[in-house]
Amino acid sequence: MTPSEVHEVPVDPGGDRELRLRLRRFSAAHPESQAARERGAVVMFHGGNTLSDTFLLPDGGITAYLCERDFDVWLIDWRTSPFIVDPLVQKQPPLGQSERAERGLYTLAHAAREDVPRVLGEVRRRIGEKTPLSVVGHCMGGGVMAIAVALGLVARFDVKNIVLSTMGLFYEVPWNGWMKAEDFIVERIPYQDPRCRGIDPKKPDSWPAVMRKACTRWPQAWMPPGTSPAARMLQYITFMFGQPYDRDALHPSISDATLLGQFGTMHLGLFMHAAQLVRRGYAAEFDAPDVVDRPRLGSHRPAGPVPGHFLIPEPFRRHRMTMLVAAENQLWHRDAMDLMHEWLRSHQVESTKVVHAGYRIQELFWGRRAREEVYPGILGALG
User: Fold this and answer.
1) Which of 41, 50, 277, 369 has the fewest CB atoms lying closer than 10 Å?
2) Are 41 and 74 in contact (CB under 8 A)?
C-alpha cells in the first residue's frame, strides 16, 4: 500500500535536540461517503522494537482491511520504532548528551507524555474537530497508550474507541520471561557496558557480555527451530522477550526477508522500564520504588500502589475500551489483559474483552486467518 500523506511529527525528548516521528496516512476507500464520515480516523501505535509496517502485513494487513471499510488509517512510527532508534544509536550521539540521560527519554512514561499527545494532536489538526477518532495500541504501543489515558492526555482529542492489543497497565509474563526479569539481566547492562544504548536481535555479536552469556545458557529446547537468518533472529527475539510468532502460523505471503525488516534495536531505556514493570506487575514511573531498590520503602511496605503509579481509573471512563487478547501469547501472559479488563470493569469503565484462542502476539495481525478471525473484531471495536 502507498500512503496518501507522509508527515514528520517533531517531539521534544527533553534533551538537546528533537526526534522526528513518521506519521503515514492511508485514506478510506470512499473518503466522501457517509460511511467514511461516520467511521472517521484511527491511529495505530506499534510495539516496542517493530515498525508501523506491523499493520501493513500481510498484503496491506489490518490497514487495508480498515481502509476498504472506509476508515482513514494513520500509522505512527513512535520513538521506539527501528525507523527512529536504529539511526539514533548507530549514527548519532546520545540524546541529553549521555547514555543515561537518553535512557530516561526512552521510557514508556516519557513517550506517553510526549509522543502520544503530539501524534494525536497532529492527526486531529489534519482531520478536523468533528471527525470521529479512535486508537489502536499494540503490545508496548498498548502500554504507552494506557499510560497516556491514565494521565488524561487522550480525552482532550475526543477519542472515543480505544483498542489495547495484548498490553495495558498490567504486566504479566510466562514463567521463562519471569526468570529473566528476576535475574536483573537488563539492569546489569549499563554497569558492564556503559556505552550500550540498545539491543539488536539481528546483531547478537554486538550484545553486552551479560546478554551473550545468558543467551548461550538458555535451553535450546525453549527456542523455535531453524538456521536461516530469519529463524536466528526469531530465536534471539524469543530469548530477549518471548516468542512473538510461530513461523508456520503466519500468512504464507510474509517472506523471511520481510520478517527481517520488521524488527530492530530495542532501546535500553524501554527494555529496562519493561523489566521493572514485569517485576512490579503494573505500570509506574521508571525507577519507582519496589523493583530495584526495595529498601527505599522502609521496613513496612505501604498499602496500595507505589508512588508514581498509573492505576488511575477515572480517565478511562471517557472512552470505550476493548482488550484484544492472544490466548497463546508467549511474550506477555494473557493474565495481563484479563487483569486490565477486570480492573476497568471494577471501576465502572465500559470494557470488552475479545480473546483469540491459538494466537500468539504478532499472529493477531500476521496470522494465516487473521483477516477472517481477528480483523472483524477490531472493526467492531472501532465502531
Assistant:
1) 369
2) yes
Tens of pLDDT, residue by residue over 198-256, are 999 999 999 999 999 999 999 988 999 999 999 999 999 999 999 999 999 999 999 99
Q: What is the CA radius of gyration of the chain?
A: 20
pTM for the model stands at 0.95
Give the cell for residue 259.
Answer: 520478517
Architecture of domain 5-382: 3-Layer(aba) Sandwich (3.40)
> pLDDT tier at 78 (50, 70, 90 boundaries)?
very high
What's the Cα-to-Cα distance from 110 to each of 102, 144, 268, 320, 348, rounded to whole Å? Answer: 11, 9, 14, 24, 28
DSSP letters, 341-381, are HHHHHHTT--EEEEEETT--TTHHHHBTTHHHHTHHHHHHH
Rounded to whole angstroms, how far apart are CA atoms 61 and 53? 9
The per-residue pLDDT for range 138-187, each reduced to its tens digit, is: 999 999 999 999 999 999 999 999 999 999 999 999 988 887 888 889 99
pLDDT band of 303, cuts 50, 70, 90: low
* Distance, CA of 329 to CA of 10 (rounded, Å): 34
- The answer for residues whose C-beta is within 8 angstroms of residue 312's C-beta and 6 or more apart is 150, 151
